[in-house]
Amino acid sequence: MQAIRGHHELELELPAVPESVTRARHAVAEIARGVVAAEYNVALAVSEAVGNAVLHAYRDRKPGTVRLEAHTSRRGLLVTVSDDGGGIRPNLGGGGLGVGMGLMRQAASELSLESSESGTSVRMVFAGGSA
Amino acid sequence: MNRLEAETTSRSADGALITFVTVSGEVDLANSDQFEAALDPDRFADADGVVLDLRLVPFMDSSGLAAVLGASEDLGPRLSVLLAPESDVQRLFEMTSTLDRAAITFSEDEAIASLASERDGS
């Protein structure tokens, strides 16, 4: 993990395992503190995005990694969660509530998603401001 | 590992045996299995009511919410979920429009009263 104080940047590559959800959330929370208006939104969206990658990216595949990038800008905080898994596919009979994407859309000011058989990338912007 | 603690105590209230499950720590995918296990309905077979106290949970994501809603389905009117007012956990219920899928309360007295009214059918 590399966090450059004063520049508020983060790049992290984690194994796609449940424990990485916690590590990713805490790492981004450090960057977000005092930068975004709603720190919980950032924590929630990162948790959901990394959780989705852990649960779904490498389903029926060799386990892989989840990449997390975050940096601050005049707009606030930009966070990208990406993987090299199989893309977003129907998960028939899968567990969970299926609310992760909806939560990310509510939590982030902007959200864009790219997904293919080569992987998925979720890009989120969180508005700046102090809580 | 995301450390989660779930303390279970039981006491009588209004003539009923109420089990309190007090959870502390963040709840996410790393420990949602542990959280779900703490809410296994078989653990509460002898209880007239269960209060799931989430006031000491500073963060919960949808994996934790799924466990709470699952417990609410399993235990029905025997479960009351206790939240800190205006907490991030309450916010999660609001964002997912699931406030009405569990008996949400904001004080211990309210939780016990809620369970009593369900038992009385009022």
Q: What is shown here, in short?
A:
With 131 residues, chain A is an alpha+beta fold. In chain A, 31% of the residues lie in helices and 33% in strands.
Structure description:
The complex is a heterodimer of chains A (131) and B (122). By secondary structure, chain A is α+β, with helices and mostly antiparallel strands. Chain A has three helices and six strands; from the N terminus they run E-E-H-H-E-E-H-E-E. Chain A has helices at 19-32, 39-57, 100-107; strands spanning 2-4, 9-15, 65-73, 76-83, 110-116, 119-127. The longest helix of chain A has 19 residues, at 39-57. The relative contact order of chain A is 0.22. Chain B contains four helices and five strands, in the order E-E-H-E-H-E-H-E-H. In chain B, strand 2 (16-24), helix 1 and strand 3 form a beta-alpha-beta unit. In chain B, helix 1 (32-38) runs parallel beside helix 2 (62-75). Chain B is globular, with a radius of gyration of 13 Å. The mean pLDDT of chain B is 94. At the A-B interface, helix 1, helix 2 and helix 3 of A face helix 2 and helix 3 of B.
Topology summary:
The complex is a heterodimer of chains A (131) and B (122).
Chain A lengths: L1 E3 L4 E7 L3 H14 L6 H19 L7 E9 L2 E8 L16 H8 L2 E7 L2 E9 L4
Antiparallel strand pairs in A: 1-2, 2-3, 3-4, 4-6, 5-6
Helix pairs in contact in A: 1-2, 2-3
Chain B lengths: L4 E9 L2 E9 L7 H7 L10 E8 L5 H14 L3 E4 L5 H8 L8 E2 L2 H13 L2
Parallel strand pairs in B: 2-3, 3-4, 4-5
Antiparallel strand pairs in B: 1-2
Helix pairs in contact in B: 1-2
